[in-house]
Amino acid sequence: MFITFEGIDGSGKTTQSKLLADCFAYHDVVLTREPGGTYFAEKIRKILLTSEIDRTAELLLLLSMRQEHMEKLILPSLQAGKIVICDRFIDSTIAYQGYGLGISLELIEKLHNLINIKYPDITFILDIDVKLALQRAQNKNKYEVMDLSFYNNVRKGFQTIAAKNRHRCHIIKETEKASSSQIHNTIINMVSIR
Ligand code: TYD
What we know:
CATH superfamily: P-loop containing nucleotide triphosphate hydrolases
Family: Belongs to the thymidylate kinase family.
CATH class: Alpha Beta
Pfam family, one: Thymidylate_kin
Number of strands: 5
CATH topology: Rossmann fold
EC number: 2.7.4.9
Bound molecules: thymidine-5'-diphosphate
Strand content: 5-15%
Function: Phosphorylation of dTMP to form dTDP in both de novo and salvage pathways of dTTP synthesis.
Enzyme class: transferase
Order of helices and strands: EHEHHEHHEHHEH
């Protein structure tokens, strides 16, 4: 099974990916992330998240990293019967590079067709108020200093992706009051009824 977590920075998806990965006592689980996941992609990640890069060049870089990640880690793990949990994947590219930075969604889709990606079986999109999320995010990367309108567009992008892909995407509403363990329970229930 291939499970991805998506959402804007500060939405709590990294915490939820880890909590879910710790739950599968009788399965081999691979917890991975994007940008990153392989030796090459983790090296490029540091540069990508801190440098100003032409947005199309950046898109190509993200796709190149994803291709490597698919071939070297995700597909072999799935073929070996493991559960793969990935913190961010294709929907982040559509939401950030497409809805956020304004790159054509058609171009993003065409490039993904070239690398022949496998879509996740389940995607959890953690949806949260932008101001609340940015209070939690710690300005660790270049996106986290972008303005509210950028993040509102990215958030709307994730909501649109969810509406278009109901067969795999589940929106999980994050509020100030909901604890990580309550959200985790909702996620676990969704995984187990599949
Ligand atoms: P993330 O790992 O969530 O950051 P952090 O280390 O702060 O928890 O993601 C890194 C950033 O990369 C995030 O701001 C979103 C961005 N990103 C894209 O813009 N496009 C993509 O395709 C991916 C995978 C990430």
